[in-house]
Design brief:
Elements lengths: L6 H24 L3 H21 L3 H26 L12 H23 L15 H10 L3 H27 L2 H13 L2
Length: about 190
Amino acid sequence: MFAELNASLGNIYFGGLALAALLCALGVVITRHPLNAAVLLIGAMLALSGIYALLDAPFMAVLQVLVYAGAVMMLVVFVIMVLNRARDEKLPRFDAWSLATAGAPLALCILMVVTVLRQPLTADAKAVRGEPEPISAYMFALSGGWWLLFVAVGVTLLVAVVGAVLLAKRRLDTPAETAVEHAKDDAHGH
């Protein structure tokens, strides 16, 4: 991927990304607030992804972003937000900033769907042009042509996470007095 970079420019990029990863990791250890630590850990994971890209391992770079910086850190941030909900003040439901931040991932998803739909989906269509990197070749061989099932499982897990978030939000939106009354009714057998 970045093999055409000259050695000095590659070393500068590598040093910058390594420094960013080290500083973010140090910030994770030093900071007291767990949400700040989670954001710094995401920064460290993204810097590691950049290092993988510089080392001509784009599959590992994308995997680093999707699995660690994406899925695992989303779960960590979700748990932190649920556990710290008592300290947070009530924010307005929708504002211009929340709509703008929701629009960016939506636009990216639309772009990805359009890109996928424009590609031929024949059985003999090759996804990789040229020789894949060794780890990609191993992963392609491991999937054995079941990539569509892998995507379906990923979408199912995404739907499960969205459902869990909606259920947790509904529970958080229930007023505390109503929850106490329901608990008393359950205790008395009503």
